[in-house]
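Hey L., structure's done. Input below.
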Amino acid sequence: MHCNRYLPRPLNRRQLLRQTGSGFGAAALSALLADGSLAAPGKAPFALKEPHHEPRAKHVIFLYMDGGPSQVDTFDPKPALQAENGEPFKMEIQPTQFDNIGNSLGSPWQFRPGGECGLPVSDLFPHVRECADELCVIRSMTSEFPEHTNANYFLHTGHGLQGRPSMGAWCAYGLGSECQNLPGYIVLNGGLIPPGGLECFGSGFLPATYQGSVFKKGATPVADVTRLEPTDAAQLRKLELMRRLDESVIERAGKQDALESAIANYELAFRMQTAVPDLMDIAQETPATQQMYGLNHEWPGTQTFGHACLVARRLVERGVRFIQLTCPGGNGDRWDQHSGLRDGHEKNARSVDQPIAALISDLKARGLLDETLIIWAGEFGRTPFAQGTDGRDHNPFGYTVWMAGGGVKGGLAYGATDEYGYHAIENKLEMHDLHATMLHLLGIDHERLTVRFSGRDMRLTDVFGHVVTDIIA
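Output:
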C-alpha cells in the first residue's frame, strides 16, 4: 500500500529530460512579454481585487518612528507640565519599564502654530509644521503593551505576539496592487529593523507572497535579484523548469503555500530585475527635487530618510499598495530616549523632518496626496515625568500619531490626553481603531476582510476596532 504521508519517488534524470525538454522556453518568454507574469490568468498574487466600498485612498505610506517619540515634545503641548517642570509629578504613577521615576519634565522645545489652521507643532519639526494644514493629529492613541517587541507586533499586526500578518500584508492580500512588477508590500529599510524583527513585516497565516519585501539603500537594494544568466531566454528556461518541477510536486502533494509562493516570487523577481534599477535611479529626479528631500543634506540621517521618502513617492507613482519606512541608524537609540532626551530626539527629528515635509508637499503637487494615506506612528509614547533626570520612559496610556492625505481631515487635532499628557481622556483610541480606519479609507470593511485559520475567521482587527468617522473628510 502507498502511504499518503510520503511523496512518490522523484523523477530520474531520463524522465526529467523527457518531460521538460519540449521547447517551453520560447513559450514562457512570449507569455512574460505579453502579460508580465508566468502565473495562470487570475492567479497573479497581486491581481487587483474589488474593494467593499468606494475607496478614498489607493496607497499607504507608513512612516514608522521606531522606539516611541514623546507626544509632549512633538504634537501635544502641555502648559501645565511646563509650569511644573522639576517638581514632583502630581498624578498617580503607573508601573514603568525601568522604575526610575524622576520629577515632572517639561518639554525642552517650544510649540508654535503651523499653517492656516494654527495646529501647534514642536520646534523639533519646523518643516512638518509648514504642512500642518494636511495633518490629522490623533492625540489619544493607546497601546496594550509597554515593551518594544510586543508593542511593535501590536502596532504592525494588531496582536501582541508574533505570527500574525502585518497590516501591509493584509492590505496587499485584500486589494492586490496596481503594480505587477514590484511587490505589493515594500519596506524601505533606513538601517533599523524594529524590535520584534522581520516578523513585524510578516504574512503570518496569509500566503508568504504577501510578506513585506525589504529594500535597502544602495547599489543592491534587493538580495538575489541580480541576473546570473547571460540572456532573457536562458533565464526564462531556468524559471520555467523550476516552475514545472514545483508544480509537479504540488500535483502529487496537494496545495503547498511555500512552493506556490516560491513560484510567484521567482516570477516576480524576474520582472523586478528591470523594475528595481529604474525605481532606484534617483538621478532621474531634478536637482531641485533631490534638494527638497534633503539628499544633499550635511546630516547623514536626513540623506538616508530623504532617499527613502523619495523612493516611496516613486513607488506610489508605480502603483505599489503599501510602503513602510524605517528610521535610519546612527541617531542614538532610535526614539527611545531613556536618557539624553534632547540630544536623541533632536537627532531623530533632524533625520526625518525635512524628508517628511518634502514627501507631503511633493505628493500634493503631483495630485497624489488625496489617494495616498500617510501614517506617522511609533509603538507607544513617553512619560511626562523624567526617567532619572533627562530621559522619558515608555508610556502606552496616551500618545500621538498622525495621518495625512488619503481622505482624512487636515488641520485637525483629534482626542486629548490629560493636562500632563499621561493618559488619553477624550476620544480614546486603540490600535484596532487605527487599523479599521486605515482599511476603511482603502475601501475595505475590516469586519469582512477575514481568513479562516485555526478554526476561526481571523482579521487584522481581531474582534475589535471601529472606524473613526470624525477624522474622515
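The chain has one domain: 54-471. The chain has twelve helices and 18 strands.

-- N.
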